[in-house]
């Protein structure tokens, strides 16, 4: 099910050992949150190869930065703060947020 809403608030920071962007989207009588980010810890968990961990961590951060750059570009804003209030289409499966996108066709 698709619902139309807007970006209500967002922040960049920690969620546990992960660092990234938290986005809260809402519509009429509904709201949902999403987090896009990666692990920040310098040390791998016990038993995990350090080189693989560092490569995975770098890939997570690159993907997070690419995501932030893409949604800012799609929205025509120079920073993530400008995303607040932008229209979105949120996709729900079994009442759980499964994805969302900026409604670029509604930005003008």
Helix/strand layout:
Layout: E1 2-15, E2 18-27, E3 30-39, H1 50-75, E4 87-93, E5 96-102
Antiparallel strand pairs: 1-2, 1-4, 2-3, 4-5
How much beta, percentage-wise?
Answer: 35-45%
Strand ordering within the main sheet: 3-2-1-4-5
Described by the principal axes of the CA atoms, the overall outline is: elongated
Low-confidence stretches: none
- Summed up, the helix count is 1
What is the chain-wise order of helices and strands?
EEEHEE
| Major sheet details | 5 strands, antiparallel
Radius of gyration: 16 Å
State the helical fraction: 10-25%
In short:
The protein is α+β, with helices and mostly antiparallel strands and 108 residues long.
Spell out the key features of this protein.
single chain, 1 helix, 108 residues, alpha+beta, elongated, 5-stranded antiparallel β-sheet
Q: What does this protein look like?
A:
By secondary structure, the chain is an alpha+beta fold. 24% of the residues lie in helices and 44% in strands. A hairpin with a 2-residue loop joins strand 2 (18-27) and strand 3 (30-39). The radius of gyration is 16 Å and the shape is elongated. The mean pLDDT is 92.
